[in-house]
Amino acid sequence: MYLYGASGHCKVIIDSIQATTNKKIEGVFDDNLELKEILNIPVYNYKKFHTYAIKELFISVGDNKTRKLIVKSITATYVSVFHPKAAISKFASIAEGTCVMANAVINASSIIGKHCIINSGAIVEHDCELEDYVHISPNASLAGNVKIGEGTHIGIGAQVIQGITIGKWVTIGAGAVVIRDVPDNIMVVGNPAKEIRK
Is 126 a catalytic residue? Predict the structure, then answer.
């Protein structure tokens, strides 16, 4: 398999893959032409991507918008990556291209979209629904029945109470406490979380 994106997020993906499976990561594609390897895995020029025989691919880019742009420009068989120390309910549903990091929890009847990031120690409680390209940062917690729109980023340590709906392409600041629904395309911070800009 191959990865696309040789950033810090890529290092965590490599670690998760190597801890979980015997799959060999053949290489990583990136636009940093000076970077030749990452964690002993070769890095290749992203412009030569189409010259390789790629069977499986994972987009190892942390930024939600960039991840979506890459997926839209590439036709591939996308795989998901689950760290062995993640706790994932057998009653949860997780779409392709999503990663679940160490010590993250996804509980029963939660639905996780494509190319999401459930980062280290994040908690997604029962009956949550996450659309595509969502990022739940380390130690962020979603209580039960929370709905998150496409491309939204929940900051590190943020908390969202049960039953809340958060729109598309929203940024929830680090440590925020969300107690009210949040519309599309805004940033909220604080306790309780309040809008600071669109």
Answer: yes
Catalytic residue (choose from 83, 126, 135, 153): 126
Structure token digits, residue 53: 């025989």
Q: Check whether residue 167 and residue 85 sit in a common domain.
A: yes
Q: Are residues 104 and 183 in the same domain?
A: yes
Query: Cα separation of 122 and 137, whole Å?
Result: 6
How would you class 192 by CB atoms within 10 Å of its CB: exposed for 0-12, middle for 13-18, buried for 19 or more? Answer: exposed
Domain count, the chain: 2
Domain assignment present for residue 196? The answer is no
Q: For residues 72 and 65, what is the distance between their CA atoms, to the nearest angstrom?
A: 11
In the chain, the largest separation of any two C-alpha atoms, in whole Å, equals: 51
Question: Which tokens sit at 118?
Answer: 């459930």
Same domain, 62 and 88: no
Q: How far apart are CA 35 and CA 29, in angstroms?
A: 10
The 10s digit of each residue's pLDDT in 176-186 is: 999 999 999 99
User: What letter would DSSP give residue 73?
Assistant: H
Asked whether residue 20 carries a pLDDT value surpassing 90, the answer given is no
For the record, the structure tokens of 93 come out as 């549903």
**pLDDT tens readout for residues 23-81:** 899 999 999 989 999 999 999 998 888 888 888 999 999 999 999 999 998 888 999 99
Q: Are residues 17 and 94 in the same domain?
A: no
